[in-house]
Design a protein that fits this description.
Blueprint: H1 4-23, H2 47-72, H3 77-90, H4 92-101, H5 105-120, H6 129-132, H7 142-148, E1 156-159, E2 163-166, H8 167-178, H9 187-215, H10 221-242
Antiparallel strand pairs: 1-2
Helix pairs in contact: 1-9, 2-9, 3-9, 4-5, 7-8, 7-10
Length: 259
């Protein structure tokens, strides 16, 4: 018979697998306020094999994750927002760690302050009180950090359940899933982590529905999703190098800033 701690660990591992499914939903958002795409290189030498794995990933997404995400969108907006805030707040320690690894002290302090205020004043992160205080949330991950360190993108890889990434970002995603800054010695933390991970998977997939619905109308969904993901990751790395959320080196000069 499993102990409570072992049961939560088993549940957490199950949710971890679902979180990998969400990667195929392309949940990245483009940074705001830029005038054009960041130049990047895309190499897909294993495209036939990648397409075969993509077909499997798409089937799992079509029959499992997408229906759940569409049902989630029927919930009251306040419930969706609360889950979004809770999941985002639980991920702030990893954002903080990557801010430090990227050498951006200002963004690191923003992440740390957000986590402290939202966890205490925001009822464990359900309410984004930091946002109301002017501390806007930003995203940092290990793939972005590796890019800031000028590690090359590498070829496109489509892994079962993990979805479409370049080799650098795939490595960063796996590392991010494996590391837990909050530790796993507390049953309470494990429970909250499992809820945050499960909620974040569904919430992220639900937010990506308009995008993936649009990309599915393209003649080649694999290519459309691959190219979009590559562009957004290039944008994210450029943002990290510049050190300011929503700002990229390719911003227009002069009066036309696109903002």
């Amino acid at each position: 018979m499993q102990t409570p701690s072992a049961a939560w660990l088993s549940a957490r591992n199950t949710v971890l697998a679902l979180s990998l499914l969400a990667a195929s939903g392309c949940s990245q958002r483009s940074p705001a306020g830029a005038c054009g795409p960041v130049a990047h290189q895309l190499s897909d030498p294993a495209e036939p094999a990648n397409r075969a794995v993509f077909a499997f990933n798409r089937s799992v997404d079509d029959y499992l994750l997408t229906p759940v995400a569409r049902g989630y969108t029927a919930l009251p907006k306040f419930a969706q927002q609360g889950m979004h805030n809770f999941a985002a707040n639980f991920g702030e320690p990893k954002v903080f760690a990557n801010d430090l690894l990227q050498g951006n002290g200002q963004r690191a302090m923003t992440s740390l302050s957000r986590f402290i205020f939202n966890t205490t004043l925001g009822v464990a992160g359900l309410i984004d009180v930091s946002g109301k205080m002017g501390l806007a949330r930003h995203e940092s991950d290990f793939g972005q950090t590796f890019g800031v360190w000028n590690i090359a993108d590498g070829p496109i890889v489509e892994l079962p359940l993990l979805g479409t990434h370049n080799l650098r970002d795939a490595t960063g995603r796996v590392l991010g899933l494996a590391l837990d800054p909050l530790g796993d010695n507390s049953d309470t933390v494990q429970t909250l982590g499992t809820v945050a991970m499960a909620g974040g998977v569904v919430d992220g997939r639900a937010q990506a529905l308009p995008l993936t619905d649009k990309l599915r109308t393209q003649p080649d969904y694999y290519q459309a999703l691959r190219d979009y993901t590559a562009q957004q990751r290039a944008n994210r790395v450029a943002e990290g190098k510049l050190g300011a959320p929503g700002k990229r080196p390719d911003q227009c000069q002069g009066g036309n800033t696109g903002e």
